[in-house]
UniProtKB/TrEMBL annotation:
UniProt source species: Streptomyces cellulosae
Protein name (record): Diaminobutyrate--2-oxoglutarate transaminase
Pathway terms, separated by semicolons: Amine and polyamine biosynthesis; ectoine biosynthesis; L-ectoine from L-aspartate 4-semialdehyde: step 1/3
Enzyme type, top EC level: transferase
Sequence segments annotated as region (Disordered): 383-404
Keyword terms: Aminotransferase, Pyridoxal phosphate, Transferase
Domain of life of the source: Bacteria
Amino acid sequence: MRRSGAAAGALAGRPAGERLAYEGALKRQAARESAARTYARALPIVPVRARGLTIEGADGRRYLDCLSGAGTLALGHNHPVVLEAIRKVLDSGAPLHALDLATPVTDAFTTELFRTLPPGLADRARVQFCGPAGTDAVEAAVKLVRTATGRNGLLAFTGTYRGTTARAFEVSEDAFDMRVARLPFPQDYRCPFGVGGTRGADLAARWTESVLDDPESGVPLPAGMILEPVQGEGGVIPAPDEWMRRMRQITAARSIPLIADEVQTGVGRTGAFWAVEHSGVTPDVMVLSKAIGGSLPLAVVVYRDDLDVWEPGAHAGTFRGNQLAMAAGTATLAYVRENHLAERAATLGSRLLTQLSELARQFSVIGEVRGRGLMIGVEMVGEGEGGGEGETGSERGGDFQGAGELRGVGGPWAGLEGAGDAVRDKAPEHARAPRPAAPGLAAAVQQECLRRGLIVGLGGRHASVVRLLPPLTVSDEQAAAVLDRLTDAVETVARSHARGEKQHQR
């Protein structure tokens, strides 16, 4: 396994026993663990200590962690209030496993959770504790709306990721299931209709209405619609607020439960405690996990009481009563709320987006900087126009599947002949000609960041988006250090890419 020069240098200064332990752990992992492992391949480090934003590896190096457990660590690593909450339960002699029995720890968690819920939901909500992962919560939410409505189909959006269990996977982007209708998710840089902005979002909403109202669409009235207020694994794509309101109006008018997937966006991450609050939307169902467990496994579904038609035992999970996770989660929810960390995320996130946008103007390898709060994505692109490898119409900024109807075959698109071309002529340059996704450049930036002691993630349709998910407790000084290291990494990759292009042209 190759190591960067910096990592090798750090190891050289460590005792021989620690060097062998570090290298041995990586070798044993590669030999013993599944080929499905992901983060370990791109981030060959062995964490031994962590606090806040910082991880110390067994190689003696310190890293600024902007992966945060894929968004799980709202307060960073080992925050004092989380550790104190866990120790309090351990020292009390309380049961660590209680199934779904009422306990003081569970009661405290649900009370704090309900205190934070969006207006209009908290006063008539029910909570379902399910398995400990976000994918388990998706499973429960899908089963809930199918049971409550007596219908089977679902509406989902391109670019989504829900997890890896069967029911969660069927509503993810990569799955194909006749019971799930795929709808265009609005975005600017790679707009499904090639126009971006308000117009693109309006067309996406009208497409949804057409699918539901056209008796020949092949899509019967579904059991529910599931969406992310900000697509995370899909490339950090915020849903426009007006489009969110349109989805709420469309589903409410047709008695379709709206499921908001707040697994990654929740608990202050986007600059509001729950991302749906940006648009003022109150969903019928919320899927919650990651940060609500305060770094420990916990997942719940919160939903309107009139949907609560399950029979006892209709959905369960042996570890749904994780007492340590609930204690850690209660402490995290309260700390974020009392210390206004969502507002802090909004302010700092806006500043980082502005600074990163300036970086994008300096280096052509950055196609777009986007995000909300402390959920930020930097899309890396190559030369030319269009999508990356394996592009589809929705990814290259061209037509969404079936969007030929826009060219005037009647129905809801009547009078829009040539609308795409007309609007595209007035659209910003990035909306007119998105450049091809460059997963190789994104991976190179990730590795250059690691060499500089910065951990970042990758995501997006082609894994071409460098993702930043720092803890909400990140200081201004730490944020500046993150930006400096990322800037240095991008500059290094951009220069290397430019040299390679010149050599290729010769």
